[in-house]
Specification:
This protein is α/β, with parallel strands linked by helices. It is built from five helices and four strands; from the N terminus they run E-H-E-H-E-H-H-E-H. It has a two-stranded parallel ribbon with strand order 1-4. Helix 1 runs parallel beside helix 2. The longest helix has 15 residues.
Length: about 150
Amino acid sequence: MHIWTELEAGRGSNEISSCLWNFIEENYTRTQSPRQIIVWFDRCIGQNNNTIVLTTLMKLVRAGYFSAAQQKFFLTGHSFNICDRSFGVLEAKMRKTTLRTPTDVVDLILDSAQENPYTVQRMTQASILDFKELSVNVKFPSYFRVT
């Protein structure tokens, strides 16, 4: 889980793209072998369903982490993501706890999943990259389509 306070960054596509980029850099190496990434998102236009995240996926392919990338979306109102269950567990624990600092939130996350513990990546202003600027000059090919 990647976390930050709203004093450090917002809740938009730059932040989501930065978390995705950070996760890939930490967990994957660049390779010449064929390897595809499929990323599932909800339909939140401000965070996921936009050209900034799409440009980030293109950059991951061009950087050599993957040979192909797919961005897929759950049907609005008809989807259940495994993250929804994780956040439900966290919300239930939050109701029984008083959280005063960001460290309290990290501790709550770390204590929430006993079988498969979460890792927590603390994001800062410096770790939020400007993918919005990168996406401004991207020209999507005429054959580009959303499926």
